[in-house]
Design a protein that fits this description.
The chain is an alpha/beta fold. It folds into three domains: 1-66; 68-105; 109-215, Immunoglobulin-like (Sandwich). The chain is built from two helices and eight strands, in the order ααββββββββ. The strands form two sheets. A four-stranded mixed β-sheet has the order 2-1-4-6, with no helix packed on it. A four-stranded mixed β-sheet has the order 3-8-7-5, with no helix packed on it. A hairpin with a 5-residue loop joins strand 1 (121-125) and strand 2. The termini are far apart.
């Protein structure tokens, strides 16, 4: 009787050890995968930034015109204005140089090379909150989906005083999720609707700016 009891307790103990071991392996796998994804993302970001900088420098050296992103144009303008103010002996508020995401440098007219879409358009949120594409032209009743491809919980927020108001909140990817977080909004009015980053919960300031043109 005692032998049978001992054997039963031993079996239970072994089962507990196996279960804990499996759980530990799972945690280790998740932790390792998450760390590797972070490293891959940072490496990819650094490579993209370096390649863009090299491409811009080569274009300038060849006498070509560099196509700056909206926030880059705003940053260049802000820096030029600050330099001119400093040369005039005026005081500069350095914090203003970090607010380039509030500057509307987006087109006021629909680009001639973009046809209005009646199908759902997906906009990817890239590194530093830039958008691809940053200009979208759709017909009334069409939806736009924003997909955050980054680990930083970037979101989007429409500018104030517009007939269409949309806000995603921070788009955070859940642990273990294979798909990127998204936000969808259907436009029911015609017009020009601009938006920028929803900084709630973001670990760094996003610099992207986007625009939606809605037509009949």
């Amino acid at each position: 009787m005692k032998l049978k009891l001992h054997l039963t307790l031993l079996s239970v103990f072994l089962l507990i050890i196996v279960a804990c071991s499996e759980r530990l392996d799972t945690y280790e796998i998740i932790g390792t995968t998450t760390t590797q994804q972070k490293l891959d993302n940072e490496s990819g970001t650094a490579t993209a930034v370096a390649e863009r900088a090299a491409s811009m420098e080569a274009t300038r050296a060849a006498g070509g015109e560099v196509d700056l992103r909206p926030a880059e144009r705003a940053a260049a303008t802000a820096q030029a204005e600050a330099t001119a103010a400093a040369e005039r002996g005026e005081e500069i508020n350095l914090d203003d140089l970090d607010r380039v995401e509030l500057v509307d440098n987006l087109p006021t007219e629909i680009p001639s090379d973009i046809e209005p879409s009646s199908e759902t358009v997906t906009v990817q949120i890239l590194n530093e909150g830039y958008y691809d594409p940053d200009i979208v032209v759709i017909k009334v009743g069409t939806s736009v989906i924003w997909e955050n491809t980054q680990r930083t919980p970037y979101g989007i927020l429409s500018d104030s005083d517009q007939e269409e108001n949309f806000s995603s909140g921070g788009l955070r990817r859940k642990l273990g999720a294979k798909e990127n977080p998204t936000f969808e909004y259907t436009f029911t009015k015609t017009g020009r609707f601009t938006y920028g980053p929803d900084l709630s919960g973001a670990a760094m300031v996003a610099k992207g700016r986007g625009i939606i043109f809605v037509v009949e």
